[in-house]
Design goal:
Layout: H1 2-22, H2 27-35, E1 47-52, E2 58-65, E3 68-75, E4 80-83, H3 87-98, E5 110-114, E6 120-125, E7 128-133, E8 139-144, E9 166-167, E10 173-178, E11 181-186, E12 192-194, E13 203-205, E14 210-211, E15 217-224, E16 230-235, E17 245-250, E18 260-267, E19 272-274, E20 284-292, E21 298-305, E22 310-317, E23 323-330, H4 337-340, E24 343-346, E25 351-356, E26 363-368, E27 374-377, E28 384-392, E29 397-403, E30 415-420, E31 427-428, E32 435-440, E33 446-452, E34 459-464, E35 469-476, H5 480-484, E36 491-496, E37 503-509, E38 520-525, H6 546-549, E39 553-559, H7 568-572, H8 583-596, E40 600-610, H9 612-623, E41 630-634, H10 645-652, H11 658-662, E42 675-681, H12 690-701, E43 707-711, H13 720-736
Parallel strand pairs: 38-39, 38-40, 40-41, 41-42, 42-43
Antiparallel strand pairs: 1-2, 2-3, 3-4, 5-6, 6-7, 7-8, 9-10, 10-11, 11-12, 13-15, 14-15, 15-18, 16-17, 18-19, 20-21, 21-22, 22-23, 24-25, 25-26, 26-27, 28-29, 29-30, 30-31, 32-33, 33-34, 34-35, 36-37, 37-39
C-alpha cells in the first residue's frame, strides 16, 4: 500500500512538474507574436497617397505589388490607366548619378509631384530635391532638402511682439509696434504716425496686425499677458554628457490665469483709434481669427468663453467700432469647439454656414450674416456631420462627410453627401456599406473613393460628383497571401449600452492560432478621450495589439458613451465626469460578447492604454475592480488638474471644482484592487510626468502593491519596445498565470523567427 501511494505521489509530482514546465510563454512565442507585423507585407494593390495633378483630371497614386512600389497615372476623362513613369529608366539614371544600387520598385521617393503638363516628375531623394524629364529621363539635382523648421513646443505661447512690420495691401503703409504701441509709416515720405498711446509693458498691442483690404483700417489685439507657468523634469541620462539636464516647458493647467485680449481698431487715413467696447468678452478662454470683410465694412473675431459653454462670432463695424453678435452658440454642458467647429462665410459674410449640436446632433445651419438669425437648418436627423469638404457658393450647395444616417450600418462609417443650402436634395455620393475616404479634383467634378471595413479590404474607384456614379475601378486590394498566412479578420461587434437602448460598437481581435475550444483571457485597449471616437473602422492588416493577441489573448476595442461622433447626449456623459470612461457600456459589451462566444473568459479581463487611455486603464481598477483585474497605464493624465488646460477644461469645465478630485486617480488611489503596471517617460512634455509620480506617491501612502517603469530620456509614449515587452509580460503573468522568458538569460542578438505561422 505504501509503495502504491509512493508511486501515485511520484506520478503526481511528475505531472505537476510537466505542467509547470509547459506553463511558460517562451522567447519563440514572443518572436512569433512579433512576426505578425509582416501581415502588412502581404497586402497588394491597396492605393496609397492618391493625388489629383494641379487643376487637371489626372490623378496619380502608389500601389504595392510583389516587386515593391508601383506608381500609376489615370486620366479620369478618358478612363485610361497607365504606369505613371518608367521606373526602370528612372532607377538607372538615379543609380548612375548618385552611385547607389537602388532597385526599380524600391526607390525611397518622397514628396512626389507632377507638372501640370505631365512632362516633369519632382521628388525628394537622398536629402535632395530632384526633377526628372519624363521624355528624356534626364535628372536635375536641385537644392538640398532643408531640415523641417522646428515648429517649437506645442505649449509655447505666441510672442505677441515678435511679428515683423506688416505692409498694407496697397503697399502705401507699414504698421508696426514701437514702445508697446501701434505705429504706421507712410511709404512715400517715411513719416511715422502713432495711433495708440496706452500701451505698456504689462498691457501692450500685438504685432500681429491685420490690414483691411482697402488699406485704410487695421485691427489687432491689446494684450494683458498672464503669468507664464512651467513644468519641470530631469533628463537623467543625456546622450552627450554625464550629468543630468533640467528641462522646463511652458505649460498651462486647469485653473491657471490666461492672457486677456481686447480687439482694437485703427483708422490709418484719419490717424486715430476707434474704441471697441468688449466688456462682454472679458471672461475669455480665447479670442481668435480676426478677419476683415472684403469690402472693409467690418471685421470679425471669435469669442470662446472660459468654460466652453459659450462660443460666439462677433462683428466689429469699421468706422464706429460697434459690436454685434452674429453667431451665439451656447450649451449647458460644453461646446466641442476643438473637434466640431465649422464656419464658412458666404458672399463676404452675407450668410454663414455654421456647425452646431443645438438640436442634439452635429448639424449645419445657415445664419443670416446681417442679423445673426438662423435662416434654416441645412442638415437634420439622428446622425452627425463629420466635416465639410467644400462649399459651392454659386450653386448654393455643399459637400460634407457624415455618419450614422444609414439604418443597419455601423454608425461611425463615414459617407459623403451633397445638399443645397436650404436643406433640400440631400444626395448620398457613396453608397457602399463601408467606411469611405474621398479626394476631390480641384474643380470637384470627380472624386476618388476608397472604401473598406475592418474585415473587407479597400476598393478604390473614380466617381462623378454630380451623379455620384462610379465610372472606373482603380484598384481592388488583394489579400490572398494574407488569408493564406492565417490572418484572422477583426470582427465588428455591437451590444446595448447602459440605457438598454443605445448601440455600443467595438471590435474583437483573435490570434492567428485561435482555437474556439480554449478559454481566452480578454484584454481591452482603451482610449476614451472625449475628443473623438477611436475604434478601427477601415481595413488594416496589422495593428499594434495584434502581437499581444498572439500570446494567447482576445483583444477588444470599444467606443463607449462619453466619446464623440454620436449624439450630443452620448457625448455629454463625459462632462465633468472623465472617470466614467464609458465603463458601464464597455463592461456590458464585453459580457454580451462573452455570452455569444463562450471562449471569452470574463473572469480574466485586463486593460491598457496611454495618455488619456492611461488614466482610463488605471481608473478601471479603481472604479470597476469587480470586472477588470489587470491594468497597464502608460503616461496617464491621472489627475485632470495636472494636465494641459485646453483639453481638460473643455471636458471637465471651469472653474475647478470638487468633480476634478472625484475623477482623480491620485485622490482615489487607495481604492486600488488588482494588478497595476505604470509606465512613464521621464521627459514627457505632453502629460506632466509628475502626474504619474503623484499616483505612485498616493499608492505608497495607501500601502498598495504595483509595478512602475520609468523610461529615461523618453517623451510621451506607450513604452516603446521595452515598454511593450513589459506590458506583454505583465498580462502573461497575471492573466494567463504562466511565466515569461528569463530575459536576462537570453541573447538579444539572436535571429528572430521569420515565419508567421
Amino acid at each position: 500500500m505504501k509503495q502504491k501511494l509512493k508511486s501515485i505521489l511520484l506520478y503526481s509530482f511528475f505531472l505537476f512538474f510537466l505542467y509547470n514546465l509547459q506553463a511558460q510563454v517562451t522567447i519563440n512565442d514572443y518572436k512569433r507574436a512579433d512576426s505578425v507585423s509582416k501581415f502588412n507585407d502581404l497586402v497588394y494593390h491597396a492605393v496609397y497617397s492618391p493625388a489629383w495633378i494641379d487643376s487637371t483630371h489626372y490623378v496619380w497614386y502608389k500601389i504595392k505589388i510583389k516587386q515593391g512600389d508601383e506608381y500609376m497615372l489615370v486620366d479620369a476623362d478618358k478612363l485610361k490607366k497607365t504606369v505613371a513613369f518608367d521606373q526602370e529608366k528612372l532607377c538607372t539614371q538615379i543609380n548612375k548619378i548618385i552611385g547607389k544600387t537602388y532597385k526599380p520598385y524600391s526607390i525611397p521617393l518622397h514628396n512626389i509631384s507632377f507638372s501640370k503638363d505631365l512632362k516633369e516628375l519632382s521628388f525628394m531623394l537622398d536629402s535632395f530635391n530632384w526633377t526628372c524629364n519624363l521624355r528624356s529621363y534626364k535628372l536635375t539635382k536641385l537644392q538640398k532638402e532643408e531640415p523641417e523648421k522646428d515648429r517649437g513646443y506645442w505649449g509655447e505661447s505666441i510672442d505677441e511682439l515678435g511679428n515683423p512690420p506688416v505692409i498694407s495691401p496697397d503697399s502705401g503703409w507699414t504698421a508696426f509696434i514701437k514702445e508697446y504701441n501701434v505705429f504706421i509709416r507712410e511709404s512715400k515720405t517715411n513719416t511715422e504716425y502713432q495711433l495708440s498711446y496706452d500701451g505698456s509693458e504689462g498691457e501692450f498691442y500685438s504685432s500681429y496686425i491685420v490690414w483691411s483690404p482697402n488699406s485704410k483700417k487695421l485691427a489687432t489685439y491689446k494684450i494683458r499677458d498672464n503669468r507664464k507657468k512651467y513644468i519641470y523634469f530631469i533628463e537623467s541620462s543625456p546622450a552627450d554628457q554625464l550629468q543630468p539636464i533640467l528641462h522646463k516647458r511652458e505649460y498651462l493647467k486647469p485653473g491657471d490665469a490666461l492672457t486677456r485680449r481686447k480687439p482694437s481698431l485703427f483708422l490709418a487715413d484719419e490717424k486715430r483709434q476707434v474704441e471697441v467696447n468688449c466688456t462682454a468678452f472679458d471672461n475669455q478662454y480665447e479670442l481668435s481669427n480676426i478677419e476683415w470683410r472684403k469690402d472693409s465694412r467690418s471685421f470679425t473675431f471669435e469669442y470662446n468663453q472660459r468654460g466652453h459653454q459659450v462660443y460666439q462670432v462677433i462683428e466689429v463695424e469699421s468706422t464706429t467700432g460697434s459690436v454685434k453678435v452674429l453667431v451665439d452658440e451656447r450649451s449647458s454642458t460644453f461646446i466641442d469647439y476643438s473637434s466640431k467647429k465649422y464656419r464658412y462665410d458666404v458672399n463676404d459674410g452675407k450668410e454663414i454656414v455654421w456647425a452646431s449640436e443645438r438640436d442634439g446632433w452635429n448639424h449645419l445651419y445657415l445664419i443670416d450674416g446681417e442679423t445673426g438669425k438662423t435662416k434654416n437648418q441645412i442638415t437634420r436627423g439622428e446622425w452627425v456631420v463629420r466635416g465639410v469638404e467644400f462649399v459651392d457658393e454659386k450653386a448654393r450647395q455643399l459637400v460634407f462627410r457624415g455618419s450614422g444616417r444609414n439604418p443597419g450600418e455601423d454608425p461611425y462609417f463615414v459617407h459623403y453627401y451633397r445638399i443645397n443650402f436650404d436643406g433640400s436634395e440631400l444626395t448620398e455620393l457613396t453608397s457602399e456599406k463601408a467606411n469611405h475616404s474621398a479626394v476631390f479634383s480641384a474643380d470637384h467634378r470627380y472624386f476618388i473613393d476608397s472604401y473598406s471595413t475592418v474585415s473587407h479590404p479597400p476598393v478604390t474607384q473614380i466617381c462623378i460628383t454630380e451623379s455620384s456614379k462610379p465610372v472606373m475601378q482603380l484598384e481592388k486590394t488583394d489579400i490572398t497571401e494574407l488569408i493564406a498566412s492565417g490572418w484572422y479578420a477583426p470582427e465588428a461587434f455591437v451590444a446595448k449600452g447602459r440605457d438598454g437602448k443605445t448601440d455600443i460598437w467595438g471590435n474583437i481581435y483573435r490570434p492567428v492560432n485561435f482555437d474556439s475550444t480554449r478559454k481566452y483571457a480578454i484584454v481591452e485597449f482603451i482610449y476614451a478621450g472625449p475628443h473623438s471616437s477611436f475604434v478601427q473602422k477601415s481595413f488594416r492588416p496589422y495593428v499594434h495589439f495584434n502581437s499581444l493577441a498572439e500570446l494567447g489573448f482576445i483583444i477588444v476595442q470599444i467606443d463607449g458613451m462619453g466619446t464623440s461622433n454620436r449624439s450630443k447626449a452620448f457625448h455629454d456623459i463625459c462632462w465633468k465626469n472623465l472617470k466614467d470612461g464609458g465603463f458601464p457600456d464597455r463592461i456590458l459589451w464585453i459580457k454580451a460578447a462573452a455570452e455569444k462566444y463562450s471562449y471569452m473568459d470574463t473572469t480574466r479581463v485586463g486593460i491598457f492604454g496611454g495618455s488619456a487611455g492611461g488614466q482610463n486603464a488605471m481608473a478601471a481598477l479603481l472604479f470597476h475592480p469587480g470586472f477588470y483585474k489587470v491594468a497597464v497605464a502608460s503616461c496617464g493624465c491621472h489627475d485632470n488638474r495636472m494636465d494641459k488646460i485646453w483639453w481638460n477644461e473643455q471636458f471637465m469645465g471651469y472653474p475647478i471644482g470638487s468633480h476634478y478630485a472625484a475623477c482623480s486617480n491620485v485622490v482615489n488611489a487607495g481604492s486600488l484592487k488588482g494588478k497595476l503596471l505604470l509606465l512613464v517617460g521621464e521627459v514627457d512634455d505632453n502629460v506632466d510626468p509628475a502626474s504619474t509620480m503623484q499616483v505612485v506617491n498616493a499608492l505608497i501612502k495607501a500601502n498598495k502593491d504595483f509595478d512602475l517603469v520609468i523610461l529615461p530620456g523618453t517623451n510621451h509614449t506607450s513604452g516603446g519596445k521595452y515598454g511593450e515587452r513589459k506590458r506583454r509580460d505583465f498580462f502573461v503573468r497575471h492573466l494567463l498565470g504562466v511565466e515569461t522568458p528569463e530575459w536576462n538569460m537570453i541573447n538579444n542578438n539572436a535571429e528572430p523567427i521569420k515565419t508567421i505561422k
